[in-house]
């Protein structure tokens, strides 16, 4: 269970406090996580969490009146999410989404994709990459890159927006690193929601928020290490195409908005990537929610989430 | 002693890690703070901490070749800190500083004032307001306001920059709230370093960083409650001129840069004030240092501090 004191409650909305009060962690996450996230138990984990989220996804599809079609791009399945009303200024734009879920679960029709389609009035191309442990690094990244390569061929890059949440942000950043290497164009803007840029596990918030966030660090770590990371014990977790904090960046990197919260295990990852981009001369903005957790902005009706999404839309679309 | 794990160390500079490893907290801060910060012991606290800092202040005065004169403005003592070289674009500008120190200690020649004068090449007017417990709220704020009122009479407000650190930020914000009430002009830009905008003690970081920061929350709290806050037990800590988070803001508020760190007890205060200004239509930027503590940016040679100060200068002076 996540602890929340009266002084912490006083600083957030009642809706956010109620959400946190309902969080139940697995007992003894530090000890049990390697078991819960072992490869043989991932299908069960997907089912339990997937079912809960599926109901919310259905709600959002109705709420925003979205139509969903499935296609393949570069032989990779892609879900195209189209809002009933497309904003006139977004008519020729697309938003590429890479979903999150610790590399082991998740779906291209995750709330992030649905909410962005509905609230921004934009077509979302959400890539259905392969999950772990069925495949391991770098398969998912290479699938995402294959789709990106094709999309920049058929769309004006000035009309391409890109996003990813958590592990989806990791995959999106490394996709763009591969694109840059191949001299492909960058998207117009990039949105990284609670990104995981350093899979070594370093960072202040990985300690301070380890058991305060809705996702215990031990569980996420076990997911990545046991299922996604190469089985080779010599594999370097600082490989810049695995942990993109360790890549180098320059001013050609697209303007990037990064979101997190003070309770988020990924706060340090967000902060460190912000300074990395800024130091490289790229334009970056960091948005931090008070008392907010990993991926809070996809809770559609929480006031802090609404404010954050508004700020993200402003960054992405206010000048065009 | 402040705890720092290998994973936290890996994400910050070796200089920052060494700094944190040298921090010693009072034993049992929760229990002993009311004693340590009792009014009769404040002179002793000032002496102990003041002596340590005085040596650094001397160093900085030499390093930046600063000349210091003392004057009075509106009958309040003000220290004018003048760098050897004034940047040509800053010739007619002044930076008003209100020093920090939990309302009970500190000096107008604090490092913040000296470093800003030296690094920005700008004249700093640092207000020597009265400390608590000798006087209590609202004396210090009213002294700062008297100086501000006079300074906007004799200087073009477009050339006035304003800053404050920690409790100094509280006093600066409330000074500007009084100025707005009297229809006085706002400064061109505002810099709030690790501001304390909510003296009720609410906020996520007031719990999560309570004993991780260089200043334990219990000690700061005891300083404020026992020395600065009105003795009246009915006094409302949400008084907007005492805890300026509870004031209302609008788009006429000056563009404001706010700094903090993930280990800072004031992180939530900084975050909440950022959203408050943004929601009011004012321009705000939040800068957060990975693993950084309360006021880290005044450690002159720590790489994270250098980067942060560069970003602050960019916000304050890049367009004029």
Automatic annotation (TrEMBL), chains A, B:
**Domain Alpha/beta hydrolase fold-3 as annotated: residue spans:** 96-296
Q: Does the keyword RNA-binding apply?
A: no
Mind listing the UniProt keywords for this protein, alphabetically?
Answer: Hydrolase
Picking any one GO molecular function of the record gives: triacylglycerol lipase activity
What InterPro entries does the record tag this protein with?
AB_hydrolase_3 (IPR013094), AB_hydrolase_fold (IPR029058), GDXG_lipolytic_enzyme (IPR050300)
Q: Is Hydrolase given among the entry's keywords?
A: yes
Pfam families from the entry? Answer: Abhydrolase_3
List, alphabetically, the PANTHER family matched.
Answer: AB HYDROLASE SUPERFAMILY PROTEIN C4A8.06C, ACETYL-HYDROLASE LIPR-RELATED
Q: What protein is this chain from?
A: Alpha/beta hydrolase fold-3 domain-containing protein
């Amino acid at each position: 269970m996540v602890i929340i004191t009266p002084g912490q409650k006083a600083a957030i909305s009642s809706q956010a406090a109620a959400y946190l009060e309902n969080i139940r962690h697995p007992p003894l996450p530090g000890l049990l996580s390697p078991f819960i996230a072992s490869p043989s138990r991932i299908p069960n984990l997907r089912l339990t969490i997937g079912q809960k989220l599926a109901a919310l996804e259905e709600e959002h599809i109705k709420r925003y009146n979205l139509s969903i079609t499935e296609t393949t791009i570069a032989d990779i399945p892609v879900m195209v999410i189209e809002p009933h009303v497309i904003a006139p200024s977004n008519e020729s734009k697309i938003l590429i989404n890479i979903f999150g879920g610790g590399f082991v679960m998740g779906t291209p029709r995750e709330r992030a994709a649905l909410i962005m389609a509905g609230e921004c009035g934009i077509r979302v191309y959400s890539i259905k990459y392969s999950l772990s442990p069925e495949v391991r690094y770098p398969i998912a990244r290479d699938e995402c890159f294959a789709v990106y390569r094709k999309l920049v061929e058929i769309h004006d890059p000035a009309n391409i927006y890109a996003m990813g949440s958590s592990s989806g942000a990791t995959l999106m950043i490394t996709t763009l690193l591969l694109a840059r290497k191949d001299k492909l164009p960058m998207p117009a803007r990039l949105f990284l929601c609670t990104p995981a840029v350093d899979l070594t596990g370093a960072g202040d918030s990985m300690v301070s928020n380890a058991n305060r966030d809705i996702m215990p660090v031990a569980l996420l770590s076990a997911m990545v290490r046991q299922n996604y990371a190469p089985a080779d014990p010599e594999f370097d977790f600082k490989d810049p195409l695995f942990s993109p904090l360790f890549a180098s960046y320059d001013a050609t990197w697209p303007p990037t908005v990064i979101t997190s919260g003070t309770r988020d295990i990924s706060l340090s990852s967000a902060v460190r990537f912000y300074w990395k981009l800024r130091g490289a001369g790229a334009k970056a903005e960091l948005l931090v929610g008070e008392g907010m957790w990993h991926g809070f902005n996809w809770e559609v009706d929480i006031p802090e989430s609404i404010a954050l999404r508004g700020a993200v839309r402003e960054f992405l679309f206010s000048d065009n």
